[in-house]
Design the sequence.
């Protein structure tokens, strides 16, 4: 399936989570076997072209796509977790959200010094989480210069924020608005 055909599998839900937001729901994409396979295949091609030696995905939907890409590439998957989810000593980073703050953590032994890590996630909006993940992975020795997404919401500026931090951005599709 082409990215345009995959785009047609994404459900738009008006007024979620708040009035005025048109939510792009990937549930319909990931529940469609051929669509999921094709989306992962497109991400694999892009990750391979970037020279990724490992794939990192942010909790939770980044685990879906990131782990699948890592399996297809034959490389390791690095889970970027919410606080308190890893049973070993972690390295973390606090970051700002649109309405508050959050924290990401990673097991620093999961990354080899100088290892080229590509970030994979379902969607890039404002870029706060992806930017924090890139900074965190770099902090523990990873080389992060590529982030791959199924969906980009370019009007929210996240891809540009990542590019400003020297992280290339590629998405299978984009949607206008929020």
Sequence:
């Amino acid at each position: 399936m082409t990215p345009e055909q995959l785009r047609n599998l994404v459900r738009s839900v008006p007024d979620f989570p708040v009035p005025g937001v048109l939510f792009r729901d990937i549930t319909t994409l990931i529940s469609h076997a051929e669509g999921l396979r094709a989306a992962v295949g497109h991400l694999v091609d892009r990750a391979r072209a970037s020279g990724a030696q490992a794939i990192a995905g942010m909790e939770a939907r980044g685990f879906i796509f990131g782990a699948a890409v890592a399996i297809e590439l034959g490389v390791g998957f690095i889970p970027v977790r919410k606080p308190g989810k890893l049973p070993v000593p972690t390295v973390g980073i606090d970051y700002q959200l649109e309405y508050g703050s959050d924290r990401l953590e990673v097991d620093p032994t999961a990354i080899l010094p100088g290892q080229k890590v590509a970030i994979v996630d379902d969607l890039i909006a404002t870029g706060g989480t992806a930017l924090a993940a890139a900074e965190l992975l770099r902090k523990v020795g990873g080389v992060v210069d590529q982030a791959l997404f199924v969906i980009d919401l370019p009007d929210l500026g996240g891809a540009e924020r990542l590019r400003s931090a020297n992280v290339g951005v590629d998405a299978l599709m984009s949607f206008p608005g929020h």
